[in-house]
Specification:
Elements (H helix, E strand, L loop, with lengths): L2 H9 L3 H23 L2 H18 L9 H19 L3 H14 L11 H6 L4 H12 L4 H8 L3 H18 L1
Length: 169
């Protein structure tokens, strides 16, 4: 079944259709929020929150954008909102790195590639900018608006991310 059929059915309350959408997109949503948060447990929670919000908002989905674009935008918003609520970002980032290097038998079946291992080492804002620009194709102006920073800050943070990752390689 296609996304459009499942979207229409799910918007009308069909839980099986929504489950198919969930199964199609859960890995991508998880990857996105994990890269933003660098915390497996938080990413698991945020994935649930993204799909709860998607279920509630699906009747309002107008189809002007692709479903995946709409869903990943929702995931970005949920992730960034949660990050703003959190304190001590850097300590959580360090714990995530330690956890990821020690726990190779994680039940999530999400294999961290080399890029992901480098991304989670980046400082908070640098990581956010890199993920949004390089992986989600947001413009620096969109990132600036989303993170409440100057466009120039977004550009410099992206440059910093590339430089750090090149050094680590």
């Amino acid at each position: 079944m296609s996304d459009s059929n499942d979207i229409e059915l799910a918007a009308n309350g069909d839980k099986h259709a929504f489950r198919r959408l969930y199964e199609r997109y859960v890995r991508g949503v998880y990857g996105m929020v994990f890269r933003l948060t660098a915390d497996r447990s938080l990413a698991d929670d945020l994935v649930q929150e993204v799909f709860v919000q998607a279920w509630r908002s699906l009747p309002k989905f107008d189809g002007r954008a692709k479903f995946s674009t709409w869903l990943f935008s929702l995931a970005n918003n949920v992730g960034i909102t949660e990050m703003r609520k959190q304190s001590r970002w850097f300590k959580r980032n360090e714990r995530a790195i330690d956890h990821n290097t020690q726990d190779e038998t994680d039940s999530s079946d999400i294999d961290l590639g080399e890029l992901d291992k480098l991304i989670i080492r980046l400082p908070e804002q640098t990581r956010q900018v890199f993920v949004l620009h390089a992986l989600q194709d947001y413009s620096h102006q969109q990132i600036a608006d989303l993170l409440h920073i100057a466009e120039g800050t977004s550009k410099s943070q992206f440059f910093r991310a590339k430089k750090l990752m090149q050094e680590w390689l």
